[in-house]
Every structure is written in C-alpha cells, then in structure tokens.
C-alpha cells in the first residue's frame, strides 16, 4: 500500500462534493452517481445527531444511498437533508418505488449526521432545507474548485477542535487498484495538539505551535461537539464491509484527537463505495482498505485543522506556529 496520504475525497471516482458555507455554520454534501453508493455507518460518540442510519445496518433492506449530508446546527441541521432529497428528486435521482423503468416516485436515500456548533456565532442560525438544496446543486454541477478545498467551509464553518478552530478536511491514498479517501468535519471536544510538545497528535512531522501561546488560549464550554465524516472507496465492498471501513476509520479519530469518542461527542463515520458491484472483496484486501481508512481519517482531521482560519472567537493552528506569534496574549479574530 502506498504510504503517501494527500489529495481529496473526489479522488474516488464517481464522487462529487458541494458546500453551503454560512459563516458560523454550514452544509456539505457528498454525492454519488445516480445509481447510488453501497454504504454502512458506525457511531462511537455519546451524543450523536443522525438521520437514516438504521437502514444502513447490514441486516436491513436498502443497499445503496444517493448522498450523505454533513451539517452544522446540531439536531436542527438535520432539516437540511430535506433539501438534499428535494433537489435529487427534481433531477430524477432516487430509489424507484415501483421498480426500474416504471413511472412513479423516486425516494432519494440521504443519511445524515450533524455537529454541535450552536455556541459559535449566532445560536439561532442553523442550516435549512434551502441550504441543503444549495449544497446539492453545487455537488451536481461539480464545477470543481471548492471540491478540493478544506478548512473553514461547508459543515466545518462553525467547527472547533479543542481550543482551536476546526473545519472540513480531506485526504486520500491509493491501495493497489483502488482509492480510499475521507472527508471529515473535525469538531471534537478533545484536543488535537499535544500541549507538552506543541505537535499535532495526528502528524508529528508538522511544525509545533508556540506552546506558551497555546497555553493562553481559553477553552470553550464543553458541549456536544462531534466529529463526523465519510470514508469512501471505489473497491467493490459489500454493505458489511462498508460498515467495517467506517468502524476502522474511527481509529483515525483516536489517533488525531485526545480524548476521542467522549460522552460529549457524537462521532459518526459513514463508509461508502462507488463501485457498481457490491460483491465484496477478499479479507486480505479488506485488511489493506481498513488500514487505509484509519490513515485517511487521521490525515483529513489534520487537513481540517491546518487549513482553518481564525474567526468567531477561535484561534486557528496556523496562527500559533512557532515564530509566527508575539509574546503577548492571543486575540482571536472575529468574523
């Protein structure tokens, strides 16, 4: 397996990404082909906010989903999934109620997860169905540039990572003939920086932050923060194996965040495959894909944090790099 982790979620063929960035909150939509994606899910945190996750269990009937919604706004933000469904229905994407080739309604299958960001910015400002539709149109148009962007956009607009600003991050890696990638909204209660060394837990090769400046930062009140995301591949995994990728992807959260999966987090990862076949892969291949899943989730969290910009009373990692801060108190930028 390649050891190079970089890139973005759309390195997996068949995926597109769209965002609605609303300043202190937002929406990100991961869109598959009209035929849908094989999908599973694994929830580890103590305070999840999710929608349509039960149907992803391997023993349930629905085999494929058409999009995954990641949003801010806590439970209110789940309303954005209505807009995703409406927009997909308008372009003829969804599960055919009467069967393929027969005229009738289509139901888009859109699992969703949300982060708690209500204490960042305006607590009454939450994503709506209109914002979900806007992010979906962006993904459908696939006009390019924002699909590669990371940091303070989409569902990551209001994210915090311990005492730092979080965000939306991406990473990918090649595993033999396949690609494994992740898109993560990094919004954990736990820290992403080791206070003793100033290094990121998820990548000790990056420069340390100024430890004195880091120590002066004020911790926001503990709340139901949550890290959410998608692990994607073009390997022909079946539904159970897609869940396995989501499960092992949580190891990436544990590598990058201390502590992870706390009672105040609702950590949720979806596993998806864009391959039209869902026949499954051999155990040896699944082992390699699983290892990659943990690596790209960890790398995506690092990407989210290092790409974020200061705002809403939160200081971003780049502002604290050694040699780039003054000896005075850190005043977080407001926006």
From TrEMBL:
Leader peptide range in chain numbering: none
Recorded family membership: Belongs to the peptidase S58 family.
Any one Gene Ontology molecular-function term assigned to this protein's record: aminopeptidase activity
Highest classification ranks of the organism: Bacteria, Bacillati, Actinomycetota, Actinomycetes, Mycobacteriales
One Pfam family recorded for the sequence: Peptidase_S58
The protein, known as: Peptidase
Organism the protein comes from: Corynebacterium alimapuense
Gene3D superfamilies in the record: L-amino peptidase D-ALA esterase/amidase
Transmembrane segments: none
């Amino acid at each position: 397996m390649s050891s190079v982790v970089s890139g973005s979620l759309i390195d997996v063929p068949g995926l597109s990404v769209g965002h609605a960035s609303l300043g202190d909150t937002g929406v990100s939509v991961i869109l598959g082909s009209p035929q849908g994606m094989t999908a599973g899910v694994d929830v580890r945190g103590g305070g999840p906010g999710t929608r349509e996750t039960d149907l992803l269990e391997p023993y349930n009937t629905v085999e494929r989903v058409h999009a995954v919604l990641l949003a801010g706004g806590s439970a209110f933000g789940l309303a954005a999934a209505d807009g995703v469904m409406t927009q997909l229905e308008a372009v003829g994407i969804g599960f055919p109620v009467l069967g393929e080739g027969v005229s009738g309604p289509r139901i888009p299958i859109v699992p969703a997860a949300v982060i708690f960001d209500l204490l960042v910015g305006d607590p009454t400002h939450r994503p709506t169905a209109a914002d979900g539709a806007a992010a979906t149109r962006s993904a459908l148009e696939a006009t390019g540039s924002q699909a590669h962007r990371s940091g303070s956009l989409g569902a990551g607009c209001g994210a915090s990572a311990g005492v730092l600003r979080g965000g939306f991050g991406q990473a990918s890696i090649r595993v033999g003939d396949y690609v494994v990638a992740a898109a993560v909204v990094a919004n954990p209660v736990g820290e992403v920086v080791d206070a003793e060394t100033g290094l990121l837990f998820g990548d000790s090769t990056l420069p340390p932050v100024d430890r004195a400046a880091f120590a002066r930062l004020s911790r926001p009140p503990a709340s139901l923060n949550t890290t959410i995301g998608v692990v994607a591949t073009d390997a022909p995994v079946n539904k159970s194996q897609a869940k396995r990728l989501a499960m092992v992807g949580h190891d990436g959260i544990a590598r990058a965040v201390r502590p992870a999966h706390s009672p105040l987090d609702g950590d949720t990862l979806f596993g998806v495959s864009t391959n039209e076949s869902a026949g499954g892969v051999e155990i040896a291949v699944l082992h390699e894909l699983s290892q990659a899943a943990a690596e790209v989730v960890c790398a995506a969290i690092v990407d989210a944090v290092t790409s974020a910009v200061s705002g809403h009373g939160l200081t971003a990692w780049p502002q604290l790099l050694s040699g780039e801060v003054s000896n005075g108190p850190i005043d977080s930028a407001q926006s």
